[in-house]
Design a protein that fits this description.
This protein has 353 residues and is an alpha/beta fold. It contains 12 helices and 12 strands. The chain has a domain of 244 residues: 3-Layer(aba) Sandwich (Rossmann fold). Strands 3-2-1-4-5-6-10 form a 7-stranded parallel β-sheet, sandwiched between helices. A 3-stranded mixed β-sheet has the order 7-9-11. The protein has a two-stranded parallel sheet with strand order 8-12.
């Protein structure tokens, strides 16, 4: 199978490509713009594999996208390219509108043109898999779960842009017949995650003895999904999902932000017994809450379990231990980031034009 993967240098995209090259007989065309969060070092283990190919390109460039499709003739497309950090979307929403909405439109239109030229089994087999987020559904109360039929109620510029892209993908299926599958996932974590996200940010700040910022009172709840479990689910949806259907992917691991931070600190106390910053939980610092901060997300993943026989392999405790150990043992990877585009500063406090 030959796959075109957009955003393959990002956190989830890189995990997906590593899985596909290692465990499946796939040829990967990785198309990534290489914005601040795109990191080819996350793909070092597959870079020299003859089944892996990288192209630096912007999905908003219609001519470039069309040329890539015609040159490489992929059998399927997996669309992960997106601006993804809520705080950045609050501070500067324009890039989210451009990449997540306009970029998805361009990719859909060029893929549709390409798909319409295919014949027979190639046209029948083709899929466009759009990877999205549970944040499009808005905020839950203390009970209940997001399902595939939950109404869309996005709260942030990021989630609104992803909701828009979801609607575009469905429209291209219903209007033009493009064979799509879609998935909406809960919060991912694991190795190689850019350190603006909660878990790697807390790990790295705690290691250095810096204050650990927790928004509001730390009671916001997320369903945590280990990134390798997500990668396996994505390939399952691509390979076996029904055209026109969406699948929610969750880790069955609801935790408050405070519980996440506490878990990280306990692991660091254990794994760094000589740290001068023990107990690391003493570094906890409550900060002003994020504007429009959704209270709770939780995924009902029964559809993908029943139809595609997928279940996460990691619970939160095992996945978090693997994640903390990876950051402890791979300082070269994250040090390059902290030396460059991102230094752990607070984002999303004010809107810029």
């Amino acid at each position: 199978m030959k796959l075109l993967v957009t955003g393959g240098a990002g956190f989830i995209g890189a995990a997906l490509i590593r899985l596909l090259i290692k465990e499946h007989d796939t040829t990967i065309i990785n198309v990534d713009k290489l914005t601040y969060a795109g990191n080819l070092e996350s793909l070092n283990e597959v870079t020299d594999n003859p089944r892996y190919h990288f192209i630096q390109a912007d999905i908003c460039d219609a001519e470039k996208v069309a040329a890539i499709l015609q040159q490489h003739q992929p059998e399927m497309v997996m669309h992960l390219a997106a601006e993804s950090h809520v705080d950045r979307s609050i501070e500067g929403p324009s890039e989210f509108i451009q990449t997540n909405i306009v970029g998805t439109y361009v990719l859909l239109q060029q893929t549709l043109n390409y798909w319409q030229q295919l014949n027979g089994a190639s046209k029948e087999r083709f899929r466009f898999h759009h990877i999205s987020t549970d944040e499009v559904f808005g905020s839950l109360g203390e009970t209940g779960y997001f399902s595939e039929t939950s109404p869309y109620q996005p709260s942030s510029p990021y989630s609104a842009s992803k909701a828009s892209s979801d609607h575009l993908v469905n429209a291209w299926h219903h209007t033009y017949g493009l064979p799509i599958v879609m998935s909406n996932c809960s919060n991912n974590y694991g190795p190689y995650q850019f350190p603006e996200k909660l878990i790697p940010l807390i790990i790295l700040k705690a290691m250095r003895g810096e204050p650990l910022p927790v928004y509001g009172d730390g009671s916001n709840v997320r369903d945590w999904l280990y990134v390798d479990d997500h990668a396996r689910a994505l390939f399952n949806v691509l390979s076996h999902g029904r055209p026109g259907q969406s699948y929610n992917i969750g880790g069955h691991n609801e935790k408050t932000n405070l519980e996440v931070v506490q878990g990280i600190c306990e692991l660091l106390d254990e794994l760094l017994p000589n740290s001068p910053h023990k107990p690391h939980y003493s570094l906890l610092t409550f900060v002003k809450d994020r504007p429009g901060h959704d209270l709770r997300y939780a995924i009902d993943a029964s559809k993908i379990a029943n139809e595609l026989n997928w279940q996460p392999q990691e619970d939160f405790e095992s996945g978090l231990r693997k994640t903390v150990l990876w950051y402890l043992n791979n300082s070269d990877w994250w040090q390059h980031i902290l030396d460059g585009s991102y230094r752990g500063e607070r984002l999303g406090l004010e809107t810029k034009s």
